[in-house]
Amino acid sequence: MLRDAQLFVCMNISSNLLAAFLHCPTKCYLCSVRRRGAGNSYADWLQAQRESYEKEAIDRLLRTTPSDDFKLRPPIDDLKTPKWALAVNLQVRVNNTETRLQAVERSVSHGGKSSPRLIPIRFTPNNKITRGERLLLGFDALCLSQALGREVPHGKIIHGKDHVQSKVNVRPLVQEIRGLVAQTAALVANDVPPELLLNRHCSECGYRDHCRSLAIEKDDLSLLAGMSAKERKEHHSKGIFTVTQLSYTFRPRRRPKHLRDKREPYHPSLKALAVREKKIYVVGSPELSIQGTPVYLDVEGVPDLDYYYLIGLRIGASEDVLQHSLWADDAGQESRIWEGFLETLAGFKDPVLIYYGSYETTFRKRMSERYGGAQENSPAAKAIASPLNLVSFIFGQWYFPTYSNGLKEIAGYLGFKWSEANASGSQAIEWRQSWEQTLDHAYKVKLMRYNAEDCSALALVTQTILRLQRGETQAAESGGGVPQVVRTRDLKEAHDSRWCTFSSPVSELVEMTNAAHWDYQRERVYFRSSAVIRRLRRRKRSHPKWTVEKIVPVLPMKLCPDCGRKGVSHGPIRSRSVQELMFGRFSLKRRLVRYDFQPYWCRRCKKVFGVDEKLLKPGKHRNYGSSLLAYIFYQMIELYIPSSIVVQSVNKLFGLSLTTGTIGVLKEKMTAKYMETHQQILRRIISGHLVHADETYLSIKGKRGYVWVLTNMHEVAYLYSATREGAFIQGILGEFKGVLVSDFYAAYDSLRCPQQKCLIHLARDLNGELLDHPFDEELKTIIKSFGVLVRAILAEIDRRGLKRHFLHKHGAAVRRFYRTLIDVEYQSPAATACADRFRKNRDRLFTFLDYDGVPWNNNNAEHAMKAVARVREVIHGCSTESSIPGYMVLLSVCQTCKYQGLDFLGFLRSGETDIQAFAEKRARKQAARATEPF
To answer: Could you give the domains of the chain?
Structure first.
């Protein structure tokens, strides 16, 4: 209880403010400064419904409660020893926090010895309980627990037409409620209003008109309904705060071949451009086709009860249209209007069902499940099975100059007007409930007219899109003042240029300017008048004929591999010529080397042997020797030179005719050769006592892939994965028993081995939290104490190294840190989150104190990732997904050679595939050279 009392100190909030905060921070702030709303009839109606329902529910409770056990507005002192069974309208104020308990019920234990329990009760007319209502009930219980001095673990919510009582356990909600209370208190205490944000609650908020007019005045990004909060935050970090600013960021991009058949993602910047330019923008080549009789569908229902009472159908697209309105007085007549809907569809040839939004999609599926569909293979069944959801067709392809893709906005932009000024789905709910309560025919007329107008608006939008597809002229001739339609493929791609684009209303001036371009004159004019240019253009590239400069006889086995009998020479000598590089001490020289092979014949087995036919098969990739390949991939892998530049350099210096395609084939050959080397490196890393792990992304033709690095102090292995899912790394390190050093990516947590989290990553995150909450003293105390603890440990490491014998004694300081600072409750949400993070990783932050040679950071893996970053810069997203594993194999060999002080080029030239064997040979040569006399 003391902990909760500390929570509410210096906070001035009420249940009404908390309810407003759950809907919108701006609403909470406006309520706190007691600003009056501009008025909203639907919001006023909702409030009247809640008050009426509360009064009715209390009356029902009073009928079952004796008059002696009832209390109206009892004083706070009566709470601890109540003599009543039911109290209503109870005002509770504790520590500058207040709430109005709509009702409180006293529950006596069976033994009768313990104190009676008080159960707060809330009333809501909704048939479905929302999470917000549960949180408000939890807030009531928390305030009541403060007044009582003991826990109130449960509450009740009475809801719906049947006044159903639902018992709610508020214990799991307490932590979340504390955070919400702290956020509400901070917002109320701040003199600066929060960031303006329009959301779905605006339709039932009394400040709707005020906020929307302010957003339009500011040209705020929240006007764009399709933009998420995360996207808005990203734009704000880039200095983009208005719709107009966002509109200038759209750039038409050329789609890659593998994505041309897929729909482009939604572009909020293009939506902003459409609003700014007052034009309709079309992405790609969407084609709306209606083969048959269009049937425009709009459905009205009661979402809270999951039943439908009105189905509107508008059949036809010409002036001779039919409007059907199928009405149900209650849920029992729902099946009747569904049957009428199916009969109406069956009366037309090839009906095409058209609707707008997901509500009708749910209606179609739910009604088919409840009452069955049309006769199989009938036109009506086909129409229901394959309808046209127009909003899905518009989304991401048609950008109207409206802030959202709602039917009301788009149809209103095209000139359609509803009879009721504020007609909406929320208003329809009000009309329906008013009709149910009064049976006034006027409300029924309003609903049917509103439904029919929605069908007409849908028909207008559909027919407008069809006309615009046929061309702007036809659309303009049909009337309606349809604005210009712009296809994004006709927009010029933005690119940096030092030369401005020349445009003129006089076409002759444009032709003069184009005729003065350098390329045009060289290719068209000078070609006709210059003999030198004509000769250069006609000159054909000649391929030199190289002479063999070195002959290497290959001595095969003369013994038959099957019987061991000595063979005899058989047939002519067969040869293979390869382009090779000869490495001098300070020079490189290209030579054409011929390898001669003598076939042999076994008289007993009657077989020819001694020649590997694979080596003699034709192919460009077989015309290059091992030293040349070593030189090429040394430049690509260790020096990070793009393959196109390597090809250009080698061809120029050595007179070769390599292509980038040939480089790809040669890379596959090198990958196959060193694949086992890569596996050896990986096995040695996994069998060791320490692994550093990290991951990063690669862009592969617009698609993201991921590279994982596993390394110790001597070897590095890079692995490619198409996704960042943890199953990949779990499959690699599933049997690892040593210590894993990594960042805080959750995929590593599932590995069953001791783990050390990188404290550098933690320090960066803590510093970011501190900068975001500069006045949070609780957070600052935790971070400061952690810094003092780690500084003492680092001083020990500087003196003694990473030795358990000296570091293990700091475990007592770590336990003291957790006991005094982490294992307590905090009022600040930031400090609470920070403490939770320390608790969650308690066994992973100071593991290095218990092992020899385990570092406290992941710098080794981050250093290895620098090589991947440089490769990423070289390939520029142009490589294919199949070629990336080859890069990773060769890069693993290269970095492992660097870690062991070996020459990567020398390893490639040696022909070895085992790095350890190469290192041993090199060591023996150096030892022998050191013992030679001068």
So the answer is: 2-189 (3.90.320), 293-487 (3.30.420.10), 550-617 (no CATH), 637-755+859-920 (no CATH), 760-847 (no CATH)
